[in-house]
Amino acid sequence: MVFFDECHETDGDNEWKAWLEQVFDAKQEIIDFASSRRTGNCPLEFDSYLKGSFNFGLSIQFNDGGPKTLIRFPKPGHTATTLRDEKVTNEVSFLNYLGQNTRIPVTRVTSWGMTEENPQKLGPYIIMDFVEGTRSTNIMMMANEDPRDDFVLDPKIYNAKLGIYDQIADYIIQLSRLNFDAIGAISQANSSSSKTWTVTGRPLTYNMNELATYCRVFD
Q1: Contact 46, 68 (CB under 8 A)
Q2: PANTHER family recorded for this chain (predicted)?
Q3: Which residue, 215, 184, 214, is CA-closest to 200?
Q4: 4-55 pLDDT, tens per residue?
Q5: Listed residue (130, 126, 131, 129) closest to 30, CA to CA
Q6: Closest CA to 130 of 216, 66, 180, 206
Q7: DSSP for 6-40, written as a single string
Q8: How far apart are the C-alpha atoms of 16 and 13, rounded to whole Å?
Q9: Where are the alpha helices (DSSP H) in the chain?
């Protein structure tokens, strides 16, 4: 058994907060960098910040009618620093693989790179089309008078709206049909014409990141 280390958790939170201040200070430089990786030359404006459990991004709006652009970084302190480059590499490979081998809709990656490849050195990054959408809970939940109450499925919901579960089931079935001879990270053969994907690296799992972040097992 490995015990959860609250000191390391605090260190991670502090690392994340310090990094976030750097992002805020370099906001315009980040936007300019993301814009330089996009085809065309049109005016742009900052849209919003987006934060998840392990990633932080900036959404950018252009005025040429195209989709918004999102530049996304793994959050240091919540994603182990030693694993960030590996994480981004794996994510880009898997998005490309899904795009080639399934009907699952995935966003278009326009650029990506490691920490040393962006001027601000804020970490590895992915620049992709921002996908507009609506949270499924907003569609299917019953309105609560108290926002602290748990979400409850609206009993009067139209069956057509429940079709989202059919879509999810179809995605899961497609994923279940993807087979490799080993467990791990995948990559494509070094050929522009080849569509062969093989397992070439170790798996990078949620538990590995938790151990590295909060227990320093892999440091």
Answers
A1: no
A2: AMINOGLYCOSIDE PHOSPHOTRANSFERASE DOMAIN-CONTAINING PROTEIN, AMINOGLYCOSIDE PHOSPHOTRANSFERASE-RELATED-RELATED
A3: 184
A4: 778 888 989 999 999 999 999 999 999 999 988 887 667 678 999 999 999 9
A5: 126
A6: 66
A7: HHHHHHHHHHHHHHHHHHHHTHHHHHHHHHHTSSS
A8: 5
A9: 6-25, 27-36, 84-101, 136-140, 163-176, 206-214
Q: Enter the tokens of residue 82.
A: 């030693």
Cβ–Cβ < 8 Å for 123, 73 = yes
Rounded-to-integer distance, Cα 66 and Cα 42, Å: 11
Burial readout 147-185 (b: 16 or more C-beta within 10 A, e: otherwise): eeeeeeeeeeeeeeeeeeeeeeeeeeeeeeeeeeeeeeb
* CB-CB contact of 73 with 125 (8 Å): yes
- Residue 199's nearest CA partner among 218, 185, 189 is 185
Digit-coded pLDDT (tens) for 117-136 = 988 899 999 999 999 888 87
* CATH domain 6-132 topology: Phosphorylase Kinase; domain 1 (3.30.200)
Helices assigned H by DSSP within 79-162: 84-101, 136-140
Contact criterion met (CB below 8 Å) for 153 and 140: yes
User: Domain residues of the chain, as ranges?
Assistant: 6-132
Q: How far is CA 50 from CA 42, 66, 71, 93, 190, in A?
A: 23, 19, 10, 22, 34
